[in-house]
Specification:
The structure is a single chain. By secondary structure, the protein is mostly beta strands. The protein is built from 2 helices and 13 strands, in the order ααβββββββββββββ. The chain has a 13-stranded antiparallel β-sheet. It starts with a helix and ends in a 12-residue tail after the last strand.
Length: 221
């Protein structure tokens, strides 16, 4: 009888392992959501703060490889263009035509959420949470991830930001998009210590791959 019981638990353990999810698999699939190095994107960001009217920011980004980009930002408050080239950035105020001196600045992609997640070694083994897999970080500076096997992407993150809880929902493009599987929408709802909430919604209105772009477009001198 004891041998049968032992065999049962060994079989149960093997069965559970067969259906377990590996953190490496999560990150391999999540990397597939990245936009091509050379592409063009149009994004709309809506920011809503307590007791204030919503503000909308339209952003266009042209990326040429890993170290060159042109970002144009337009809202009711500002109109500016940022040209980045090999770690250097030039900012142009499109309202008055003023150009600020070029300065050292690492490239930032507003549509890149994967870089915030860290690496598989930053997380404990995934565990089931409803119909999602939950990845809890070993360090609280990293977000808690919720992974969907259906879409093979992280669809939700919870993070602590300056003592406030930020809940981040992620949506991805389907096969009808130019770049299937890439990020379509991010919604960040932050619960403030006052009990109020703020939200930031970033939508990728359009995105398409580009080919070789003229180097002079990214001149910062």
């Amino acid at each position: 009888m004891n041998k049968l019981v032992k065999l049962f638990f060994v079989s149960l353990s093997l069965t559970s392992s067969a259906f377990a999810l590996d953190a490496n698999t999560v990150f391999v699939n999540q990397k597939k959501s990245a936009f091509p190095d050379t592409c063009e994107m149009l994004m709309k960001t809506t920011v809503t703060l307590p007791r204030m009217p919503s503000q909308t920011v339209n952003t266009s980004v042209i990326n040429a490889g890993p170290d060159k980009s042109i970002t144009t930002i337009e809202s009711s408050m500002m109109r500016m263009k940022m040209i980045q080239n090999d770690g250097r950035m030039k900012v142009i105020d499109l309202k008055n035509g003023q150009t600020l001196p070029a300065q050292n600045m690492p490239r930032q992609n507003p549509a890149d959420v994967t870089s915030q997640m860290g690496s598989p070694s930053d997380y404990k083994a995934p565990v089931k949470s409803g119909n999602l897999w939950k990845l809890v970080p070993k360090d609280s500076s990293k977000p808690t991830l919720f992974y969907s096997e259906k879409v093979k992407r992280v669809v939700k993150m919870n993070a602590n930001v300056n003592g406030a809880l930020a809940e981040i929902a992620l949506e991805y493009c389907d096969a009808s998009c130019n770049l299937p599987g890439t990020l379509k929408k991010t919604e960040i709802v932050t619960s403030l210590p006052s009990g109020e909430k703020s939200s930031v919604v970033m939508e990728v209105v359009s995105a398409k791959a580009r080919h070789i772009l003229p180097a002079k477009m990214f001149n910062i001198e």
